[in-house]
Structures are given as C-alpha cells and as structure tokens.
Amino acid sequence: MKTLKLITAGLLLLASHASNAQVSVSLNIGTAPAWGPAGYSNVDYYYLPDVEAYYDIRASQFIYFGGGSWVRSRYLPRQYRNYDLYSGYKVVLNNYHGHRPYNNFNTHRRTYCVGYRGQHQNNIGYRTAQPRYQQKPSYSRNNRYDDNRRYADNRRNYNKHENKGRDNRHGGNRHNRD
C-alpha cells in the first residue's frame, strides 16, 4: 500500500512538472509597436521627422538629441510627450542595420523635414483610446504660406462683398449715377 502511494505521488509530481514545462513566456522584444507602419518585417529603426527622433524597434527605445548628446529612452522628450505616434509619419529605415542611425541624421533631417508626409501609412495596430491631449500640428514654411494665402483670398472676397454693399446703398450700380 505504501508503494502504491509513492508511485501515485511520483506520477502526480511528474505530471505537474511536465505541465509547468509547457508554460511559455511571451515577451515582445524586437517586435514593432502598434503605432508602427504596417508591412515592414525586417526593419530596425524608424525616423520620426516631426520630432526629429529615431525609434529602435529591437530595444523599444526612442533615440533623440538632448543635452549635447544622443539619448536613448523609453519615452520621447518632455516637449513631445503628447505627440500622437499613431497619426505622425514614420520613415522606415530599410537600409540601415547598425546601432547608430543618428550618424545619418543630417541627411535624414534634410530629406524628411518637419511636417514631411510620404505615401499613406496604415498602422500595425489600432489606437485603443484617444489621447487626452493632442499636439497641435506643426507648420512648415509651406503651411504658413498656404494659411497666409488663404487669409488673403478670404480678405479679397470680403472686400468684394463689402464694395457691393456700398454700391447698393447708393442706389445700385456706380456707373448709373447721374
């Protein structure tokens, strides 16, 4: 009877050890974030032109210039903490697999200036909640020019309607006055 109990206890112990061996731990090391652009599997870095920073996919860290040197952090710098990564444009650095993408920073900054938008990007995942605060869109020189031009167009239309009103108050058309 004692042997039977020992055999049963041994089998239970063996079964519990086998079930523990099947438990797997899933860590997302080296996987692209949900806000990353879909369709790129073998990429190590994104360049974020709006914040002039990089994102290291393998280390899940942002790389930005601050305090006189390049900083690696899990978060963006304070002035960009409310930046919406889902709607911001991400440049996929296909041709770089080293550890210092910022060695090409001057080229990246010239090629992909602040406000750069290439082809439409779909994100890998969906935003689960709307951000509490959204950063106002940054304006490049072209956007400011367009806003000023739009203002000038609206002003011209206003003046056109304003002159019509004056003409009507004086009895119609200016040319028909005696």
Notes on the structure:
It is a single chain. The protein is 31% helix and 12% strand. The protein is α+β, with helices and mostly antiparallel strands and 178 residues long. The longest helix is centred in the last third of the chain and has 29 residues, at 141-169. It is elongated and about 85 Å long. The N and C termini lie far apart (130 Å). The model is unreliable at 20-28 and 144-172 (pLDDT under 50).
Distance between the termini: 130 Å
Tally of alpha and pi helices: 3
Shape: elongated
Structural class: alpha+beta
**Average pLDDT metric:** 74
What share of residues are in beta strands?
A: 5-15%
Strand line-up in the sheet with most strands: 4-3-2-1-5
Oligomer: single chain
Q: Helix proportion of residues, in percent?
A: 25-40%
How is the main sheet built? 5 strands, antiparallel
Itemize the secondary structure elements and their pairings:
Elements: H1 2-21, E1 45-48, E2 53-56, E3 61-66, E4 69-73, E5 91-92, H2 105-111, H3 141-169
Antiparallel strand pairs: 1-2, 1-5, 2-3, 3-4
Précis, in short:
It contains three helices and five strands.
Notable traits:
178 residues; alpha+beta; 3 helices; 31% helix
